[in-house]
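Lab notebook: predicted structure, single chain.

Context: the supervisor wants predicted structures on file for every construct in the current expression panel, including those that have not yet been purified. This is the next one on the list. No modifications to the sequence; it matches the entry in the shared construct table.
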Amino acid sequence: MTSLSAGADPAVVGAHLARALDDARWVGCEVSLIAGGKSNLTYRISSAAGDVVLRRPPLGQVLPTAHDMVREHTVMSALAGTAVPVPRMLHLCTDVEVLGQPFYVMELVGGHVCRDALPAGYAEQPEERRRIGEGLVGVLADLHEIVPADVGLDQFGRPEGYLDRQVRRWSKQWDFTRIEGHEDLDHLAADLAAQVPRTQRHTVVHGDYRLDNTILDPALPGRIASVLDWEMSTLGDPLADLGILLGYWSQADDSGARTTAVVVPAATVLSGFPTRAEVASLYAARTGLDLTPLPWYAAFAAFKLAVVCAGIVARVRFGAMVGEGFEGIEERITPLVEIGRATLADRVI
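Prediction complete. Output recorded below exactly as produced.
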């Protein structure tokens, strides 16, 4: 069995943080894997000096442009003090001799990370859940209203041609982790490449925006305390973020492929949360963007999630994933492809 501190040896981490943070109390720290990560590995580091969070790439082979710790550190450092809440960055290590990959350390933000349920006693009323949905959309709109140059991110990516590159990148990722029996992914990739829409606006994009990549304020439902997991962030098309948010957004009346394709069970099925259509309307009202091409972005999100699932399956087989919760991932791929193709054909989200 793989240790839950694999990839972040406490003796190595403690000695390194003692030097990097200039506090000998980090020596002798405890390291525990934070549950829920199926991509980058996230650990809680505890010592007499306090508690922090360490992020590093997965243990196996990774695509060179994926799992970029410097990118995550850069964007969260830049967003500090803006309307987008992010943890405070404490340390970036690019020396691969320490843990085998670059990593960074950030503050531990208190609050709720919610996936398929809300904590007992939290947001029990439908109107409070509605505010959580509105808060998620509001922070996403806040992100897309930031002028990259104003926060030093004007060189963070190449916004021109972003969507074409995204289709190519995720097609390449599929080739990199290809598993047998899912050739329909190739057909969906070809359909997406042939119908790429025109980008209306270039902004900072998160790349994997969803409920459980945020921390909810424990005292004020609707307030987002922090946005996490920026590994896919860059400059690009903001509707790609809305598309992936909708790709993760389950609702109570879902059926068929919508239920079998769920990658991350979501508390958004609870009464009070907005529907996908309402999420889109809230976003359009805040940003003024034309959502006519949104079905393409939703279909691309389904493709991207299918490729993510294939990558997880490949890494589990290789023995490069630690933790639990990987059962049934492969069974999500086919319904995700079905959703993607149907969304493109029917032009509805």
